[in-house]
Design goal:
Structural class: mainly alpha
Distance between the termini: 60 Å
Number of strands: 6
Strand content: under 5%
Bound molecules: arginine
Shape: elongated
Strand order of the largest sheet: 1-2
């Protein structure tokens, strides 16, 4: 290489170096340096395979291996100088390797391209994020499970349309989220299994004429198998999209729980007290304790969903195989992964620290005619009324209680019998919220017995 201004890696046919603006728009090193460990791991696997196949001499392979370890420790020590002129992590590492070991460094890129290299690095990185997100989700499930166990029989209002519907148990409500986060874990596990194929060796797009062993590199990097089609291998970003999709759904779940915490911790609800550790004060209103962590978590969902839409938009019009557009995949995924992990940790902390206000929950559960359905069911069961008629009788009783300014259990037997003569005193048993939830023993129902059984099951699953 005689030219000093054109790129040292690919500048053979170039007389001129890039415009400063070109360098600014082209360089990805500012963000893809995060892939350094994966990049070096991939290069080590590639070099070892080349040597095993007789494509590299053992001497060169050993020099490359040692050099790459030095680069790794330099980056980890913070002494590595990243260069925008060298565009990306792949060329930064290779250029440094050349300085360290000389000519042998130039042989590392045999039978490989940055296209399969970046696809491999990024898959390894996203695969790690699937594992990290799974651990975060699991920890959050444990926190919810502890709440469910403590409050298996605490009653609270269950809502539809955010209107009091029927009493439910605190434990049942917590377990609803345990189920949601279990599905998130399932989606990540599915995505991880599907992404666990190795693009390395697809080279630029068509494969290579060198006698490489793709099974060996796939195995060395912990992949199940090499990807079967070289064009697909370098142009596929489904793995990132699947991760983002799973992350977006998990973030939506986090946002719903965050929204509940915001509502529940308000002075109007007082269902829970958030801890000082996850709240902030107001600089002007001394009485305030704001649920900032929950609010931020609710908002951060937008970043994760935005990342998903951004990458779908990048990919949707790309012809096969690699296009530089795909360099725009990384920042979105990096930000979404960071945001998701932080959100999961914050939610876990909030859930662990949240103190349910049991008396307030119980009082709210008993208000708003929450046992009207129990009354209608009693009329069906005990008086053999058709459900539609029972519904109507109960509605009349609710209207009566509303006029009287009381709740259903506060009506006298005589008042009830004025609406339907068959009503007996034992109807009052089903109007209590504890009896109401205890009766909901159908599979998946809110009864404390069900909650305890599900808590036991989840304890086993989560270990
Ligand atoms: N920095 C590039 C990216 O992130 C690496 C691949 C570049 N390949 C190429 N043919 N220019 O996508």
């Amino acid at each position: 290489m005689t030219d000093t201004t054109s790129n040292a890696m690919w500048g053979g046919r170039f007389a001129d170096g890039p415009d400063a603006i070109m360098e600014a728009i082209n360089a990805s090193i500012g963000f893809d340096k995060r892939l350094y460990a994966q990049d070096i791991r991939g290069s080590r696997a590639h070099a070892a395979m080349l040597a095993a196949q007789g494509i590299l001499t053992d001497r060169d392979a050993e020099a490359i291996r040692e050099g790459l370890l030095t680069v790794l420790s330099e980056i980890e020590a913070g002494s590595f100088e990243f260069s925008a002129a060298l565009e990306d992590i792949h060329m930064n590492v290779e250029a440094r390797l050349k300085t360290l070991i000389g000519e042998a460094a130039g042989r590392l890129h045999t039978a490989r391209s940055r296209n399969d290299q970046v696809a491999t690095d990024f898959r390894l990185w996203v695969r790690d994020q699937c594992d990290a997100a799974d651990a975060g989700l699991r920890a959050l499930q444990s926190a919810l499970l502890a709440q469910a166990e403590a409050g298996a029989d605490w009653v609270m209002p269950g809502f539809t349309h955010l209107q009091t519907a029927q009493p439910v148990t605190w434990g049942h409500h917590m377990l609803a989220y345990v189920e949601m986060f279990a599905r998130d874990r399932g989606r990540l596990a599915d995505a991880r299994a599907r992404m666990n194929e190795c693009p390395l060796g697809a080279a630029a797009l068509a494969g290579t004429s060198f006698p490489i062993d793709r099974d060996a590199t796939a195995e060395a990097l912990g992949f199940e198998r090499p990807m079967a089609n070289s064009l697909d291998a370098v142009s596929d970003r489904d793995f990132a999209l699947e991760f983002l999709s799973a992350a977006a759904i998990a973030a939506m779940h986090l946002s719903r729980l965050a929204e509940e915490l915001v509502i529940w911790s308000s002075a109007q609800f007082r269902f829970v007290a958030l801890s000082d550790r996850f709240s902030t004060g107001s600089s002007i209103m001394p009485q305030k304790k704001n649920p900032d962590a929950a609010e931020l978590l609710r908002a951060k969902t937008g970043r994760i969903m935005g990342a998903m839409v951004a990458l779908f938009t990048v990919m949707k019009g790309l012809p096969l195989a690699y296009s530089k557009d795909m360099q725009e995949d990384k920042e979105q995924v990096f930000d979404a992964a960071d945001t998701l992990l932080l959100s999961l940790a914050a939610m876990e902390g909030m859930v662990r620290d949240t103190t349910p206000n049991r008396p307030a929950l119980e009082a709210a559960a008993a208000s708003g005619f929450s046992t009207a359905t129990d009354l209608a069911d009693w009329l069906v069961r005990e008086l053999d009324l058709p459900f539609r008629e029972a519904h109507h009788v109960t509605g009349t009783l609710v209207a009566l209680a509303e006029r009287e300014g009381c709740d259903l259990p506060d009506l006298s037997l005589a008042q009830m019998q004025g609406v339907h003569g068959g009503i007996r005193a034992d109807v009052f048993d089903v109007l209590g919220v504890h009896n109401s939830v205890a009766s909901r023993t159908s599979y998946g129902g809110t009864a404390p017995a069900n909650v305890r059984a599900q808590v036991a099951r989840w304890k086993e699953v989560l270990g």
